Fold these 4 entries.
Entry 1:
Amino acid sequence: MTIHATIDTTRNFRPKSEALALLIERGFLHQCTDLEALDAKLVEGRVTAYAGFDATADSLHVGHLLPLMAMRWLQKLDHKPILLIGGGTTRIGDPSFRTESRPMLDDAAIERNLRGIRDTVERLFDLSEGEGRMVNNAEWLDEFRFLEFLRDFGTHFTVNRMMTFDSVRSRLDAQQPLSVLEFCYMMLQAVDFVELNKRFDCTLQIGGSDQWGNIVNGVDLGRRSGNQLFGFTLPLLTTASGAKMGKTADGAVWLNPSRLSSFDFWQFWRNTADADVVRFLKLFTDLPLSEIDRLARLEGQEVNEAKKILATQVTSIVHGPEAARAAMEQGEALFSGKEDGTQPTHVLSADLLDGSLGLLSLLVRLGFAGSNSEARRLVQGNSVRVNGELETDDRRQLTRNDTREDRTLSIAVGRKRKALVQFG
């Protein structure tokens, strides 16, 4: 099996298919099991591809958006996406690059999470008959009997090889236990690929770089069955500072508005570092590369216009055009410092006022800073006011005593950036 990495692609390989050329040019490719053969397959005609997501929460997050966007581009170019939801594999949990086991979920929680994930993917894809589909791997995994599964598939996997995958070695190197249940996860993911190939003629799997070992297993299992399958992994997404993309002081950046408001989602993208804007425009928006090249030439304060476009474009894709427009208008009010009825109001739980809400964390949550260290510099630079009073204590914890009679709190950074926080 031929393995190509990104460096080989950019220097020596010139794709003939429009789909592969676009994915490479926009920065989606990290590794591919056989780049030239996949390119030829894409030239031949319509290819069915899948990306899988376990139902560990009732929403996907920004970390999942990269494979979703790659699949979205494939559909735009007349290829067929399958969004595989792991109703079966969620019961085990993928051990890849984790130091401990995932918590077990009952069937009711998994079903609730499946509904939440469907809400997200239905906004991003055309799932009408013949165009795309969402599939639950419990449809076939629930039907397997243990001894039959071992007999049919167990002989195709060796412990020796599975021990060489980084996803397994990282757990063992950390001297953390790896259960037999988790060890079998990569077998199940390989079976998923073969089953999708048998049912829907699916020949391409797209996943994060941490899924490389699991994907290779599926490609190899398909080859043993006489079918040529392909694996395509995406780069590990980090910001220019080296931090993992999609994490904030408050945790994951969720895609469902029930988990994270459209405005807060917009704000996350609006606060993108200057050095990341162009790369994120290529990966997370539908803008043509010619327009992105124009935005890449902006300098100084003009870069903020590119950030607004990035935030509005991504929010429109994930939450819809109306939600994106409203978030943009609210964001404009925030950054322009308007103090009329359009001043942004954030609603937070009153429980946070029981000593667990730090000023630095609040500044990050409101979008005034991209990190606690940046928020600390704002406080130490005498730029932050709480209820109109200058605040110089970067360890300040906010309590109920800081709120007004209407249970609100005003925060200002400089003269123009202001927000009202309502505790309910």
Entry 2:
Amino acid sequence: MQSMTIRRAIGQDAGRLTTLIQESSAYQGEYASIISGYRVTADYIARHQVLVAVDPVERLLGFYALVVEPPELDLAFVADIAQGMGVGRLLMEHMIGQAREAGLAEVRVVSHPPAEEFYRRLGAERVGMVAASPPKVAWERPELRFTTVR
């Protein structure tokens, strides 16, 4: 993996984060409805722990958003160009460290169905399923938990 930095997102990153979400190949076809019209705003970035992975020229490789109350991984995306390069793993390891520092014992993840195995490989445990909520989400989603205590 090339040199990468994880830093706190700033309001000016909102447009790039929105673009990364909207262009994600993971949300094409049957899953497109969940991100249709979704926007990351500067206010969202200010209210939550949003961290971005960037390369040395500030190209966005991925990001995550950790909501502290209640503890939940709200968003996690890796740019299509960075898939398979370890960016997602590094972001999730970072997120768990941030959650631990914030005193959170666990972090809930409502997973995109194709991403469940990724989270499980990193140590998340499935604790249930979240029911569909049509029309935007017409499918069940795995509910997982990362335990952050060592």
Entry 3:
Amino acid sequence: MQILLALLIGAGFGAMLDRIGATNPSVLTGMLTLRRLNLAKTIMMAIGTGSILMFGGQMLGLVDVAHMSVKSAYVGVLIGGLMLGVGWAISGFCPGTGVCAAATGRKDAVFFISGGLLGAAAYMVTYPAWKASGLLEDILGGKVTLGDVPGSKFDGLFAVPGDILGILIGVIFILVAYVLPHSLSGLDKGAEVPAE
């Protein structure tokens, strides 16, 4: 039942990504070059709403804090993030949108996924060297949150309630999404094409 539910949720999420244009490299590139910010606004709205619901739900006892997962901070994550950003800018796909784009039949997305799998395999083969380099050692306390979340096993970097901070950050994301214009560069003259 869990696998079926995961497939249904994944298919629904993928369909929504396709519907908002996230499977189109032109839309993603437009966002990264600040020409088309509708997708960025949608992403920020979703993150903000999710943050408010998750942390508000934790405060009300509706969400179990034990399910909260925090990843370790280390230099390798920063390097990997830069590599992901460069790959995203070059290809017009991130891992999630690439898989969804492949499901819509885009051949370039299949090549993107193949490259990602090849990169993952190369990382696995060379993992001992990366481990020995020290780039995978915890920094900033490893698994920490910005603020203390009551009932969680993770320490907070700052002496502020993590639930309140999570809700506040969610509200900020929603406000920024609301006031952000559709374009910062003014170069997207052809975004809206009237019907003939």
Entry 4:
Amino acid sequence: MDKFANVSVLKKANVYFNGKVTSRTILFAGGEKKTLGIILPGQYEFATSDKEHMELLAGKLEVLLPDSEEWLTVETGQTFEIPAHSNFKIVAKEVSDYCCSYLKE
């Protein structure tokens, strides 16, 4: 899906790591929530509340998922999931554009 119709967008940006990671929250009529964001090159660690489905729209990431010792390479068009209530690490090799879907279990 290249665009979202009939959604609400929160005006205030989500800004992390001194502006090196930013996103905007998209709310759907049925209660679904997504964020659209940009990750600048660097290494970051995130914590989740909900299960997350990440789609990389552009760029290249190395991802260390919970309970894994091997880094996963994620490139444009690929996805990965992170369990709820966990931490994961990302190394952005280049400016990366993403869409994150928050999944209620």
